[in-house]
Amino acid sequence: MKLDERARHRWGQSQRATTLLLLVWFVVTFGVVFFARELSMTVFGWPFSFWVAAQGILILYVVLVWVYARWMHRLDVENHLAGSD
User: How far is CA 7 from CA 4, 12, 16, 64, 81, in A?
Assistant: First the structure.
């Protein structure tokens, strides 16, 4: 495979990975908060469901960044673009 073909192939893989992870981000960000309203539990006068949703989303964001970094590194290794580690 030529360098240009490899670069195009890598770019397409990178776009698909980014699109998938952004879709997960969008669904979780808006879906969890939307459905958190259904859990009407209050703790010390505050809606507990929104607090739990907010904390869970933060954890998921960190996981998404980790998955993205691993995925891009794997693509770099597959396309012989990774440095020596």
Answer: 5, 9, 14, 24, 10
Is-contact 39 48, C-beta < 8 A?
Answer: yes
Q: Model-level pTM?
A: 0.72
C-alpha pair distances (Å), 37 with each of 7, 28, 45: 46, 14, 15
* pLDDT tens digits, 23-69: 999 988 888 777 777 767 777 777 777 777 778 888 989 999 999 99
Residue ranges of E strands in the chain? 42-43, 46-47
Cα–Cα distance measured from residue 49 to residue 71, given in angstroms and rounded to the nearest whole number: 32
Contact by Cβ (8 Å): 68, 15: no
- Examine the pLDDT at 80 and tell me if it is beyond 80: no
Where are the chain's structural domains?
A: 3-77
Which residues, other chains included, contact 20 with Cβ-Cβ below 8 Å and sequence gap of 6+?
A: none
